[in-house]
Amino acid sequence: MGGIELKALPVSFATHVVGAIAAVMVLVWSIHFRGGLVWESENKNLIFNLHPVLLLIGLIIIGGEAIISYKSLPLKKKEKKLIHLVLHGIALILAIFGVYMAFKFHNESNIANLYSLHSWIGIGVVVLYAIQWTYGFVVFFYPGGTPLIRKESLPWHILFGLFLYILAVGTATLGFLEKLTFLENSGIAKYGSEAFLVNFTAIATILFGTLVVLTALSQGPGEDEYSYTAI
Ligand code: HEM
Questions:
Q1: Ligand 1 in contact with 114 (CB < 6 A)?
Q2: Which Gene Ontology terms of cellular component type are present (predicted)?
Q3: Ligand 1 pocket test: which of 28, 46, 55, 111 has the largest number of ligand atoms within 8 Å of its C-beta?
């Protein structure tokens, strides 16, 4: 992809920093304010906590790092392709676990599944992400499509990938809104420190997503020396 007249490396650095901040924020929220990360508990609310952590750190942050790996790493294209597909694979697996935790929490608390807009779009995002990953693997990695199929697929892969990523960031934002609304309705202070932390985590998520897209559209490092393999 040609890209806008902006060097990707400094933008990618800002992206890593904001990603690290967002990861710390969601961990502080779920561990310090919400009681910690557990798989099994009598207190079913704790089971939910892994959901935002796995989705934010997995799908959004590791998935975002996967997207920008072509622009943020001074490596050969073949190596970057492997890093891209492995990071997206990790992001997808963590996302599936994260969604499973929300279902587990609902089922063990006798709460209905899939009743909200957040959950509907969320399921759509994870299913489309799995399809996008599988198509990318088969066409660009193994067994690999013909040169014509690769060439014609690449712009769609990029467009659809960015679209899906932006949708994932929107879904996470909806999730923060929904959970904070539940918490406020059950008594936490509307202007308390937890409410501020959740809203600022959502803002950090949006900022990270913006920087990921900006990095993806910028000029990668050493494209001339390193882009010698056909993608
Ligand atoms: C892109 C990331 C995310 C995806 C794909 C996603 C997906 C989902 C899905 C599919 C469900 C339905 C589970 C069920 O019906 O049993 C769900 C539930 C839920 N999620 Fe997320 N989620 C994401 C991020 C977040 C984040 C960051 C939060 C913040 C706390 C959050 C909060 C919630 C809440 C409160 C529920 C339970 C209520 C409901 O079903 O809407 N989600 N999520």
A1: yes
A2: membrane
A3: 55
118 lines ligand 1 (CB under 6 A): yes
* Tally of domains in the chain: 1
Would residue 2 count as lying in a domain?
no
Euclidean distance between the first and final Cα of the chain, in Å?
11
Residue 134 belongs to a domain: yes
In a domain, 103, yes or no: yes
CATH code for position 150: 1.20.120.1770
CA–CA distance, 152 with 74 (Å, rounded to integer): 26
Q: How far apart are CA 213 and CA 111, in angstroms?
A: 36
What's the pTM value of the predicted model, to 2 decimals?
Answer: 0.95
Q: Is 3 part of a structural domain of the chain?
A: no
